[in-house]
Structure formats: C-alpha cells, structure tokens
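Input (structure):
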C-alpha cells in the first residue's frame, strides 16, 4: 500500500497558476501509472490527466489540455500537476491517484473570477 499526500493548492484569480505536488511513501511509486482527478462541489470525481510508469505518454481531459502539465520525479517519489491559465470551473479538490485507485486526502484549488 502506498501513502499519498497532496499539496500546493490555494486560492488564485482566473488566469493564475498553481503547481500541485503529490508525495508518495515507500519505494514502489515508480511501479505505478499515476493520475490526477478532481471533485468540484456537488459533483462526482472527474479524471484530469494520467502519466505512465516511465513518465511518457501523458494524456489529458480536453478541457485542461494545453493549460495543465503532468509530470513525475521517481527519484523523489513525487507527482506534479502544473496548472496555468486557471478558470473558475477548475475549482475543486484535487487528488492524485494510483493505477489501483488509491488516493490521498486531496488539496483544495479555488479560482475566482
């Protein structure tokens, strides 16, 4: 079992940027494909982006493509999500998730117009 801790959320104005981090415990992080998902108020979980075990072939939800960038540093057991040109509709709790659907506690992102 891997423990995940997300950080980097906050409140920004539309057009701003944030960088989320997800720190994983143990030495098995590199064996997982990883994803970011989010949950907006009153809505279900929404997949945003995934990255393979080797860090190649990132894929994105159409609405974040070109604005968000997923990356990973296996030496640091850390997953990242660089979010630029943020919009109010990006407001949500953001979670990192393993390929076995384990998630952390999430980090809140609030974007004001």
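Output (sequence):
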């Amino acid at each position: 079992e891997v423990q995940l801790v997300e950080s980097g959320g906050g409140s920004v104005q539309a057009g701003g940027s944030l960088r989320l981090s997800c720190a994983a415990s143990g030495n098995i992080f590199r064996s997982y494909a990883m994803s970011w998902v989010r949950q907006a108020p009153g809505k279900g979980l929404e997949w945003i982006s995934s990255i393979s075990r080797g860090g190649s072939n990132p894929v994105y939800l159409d609405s974040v493509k070109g604005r968000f960038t997923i990356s990973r540093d296996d030496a640091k057991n850390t997953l990242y999500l660089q979010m630029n040109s943020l919009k109010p509709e990006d407001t949500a709790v953001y979670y990192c998730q393993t390929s076995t659907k384990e998630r952390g506690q999430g980090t809140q992102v609030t974007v004001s117009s």
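Notes: The CA atoms of residues 47 and 97 lie 10 Å apart. The first strand starts at residue 4 and ends at 7.
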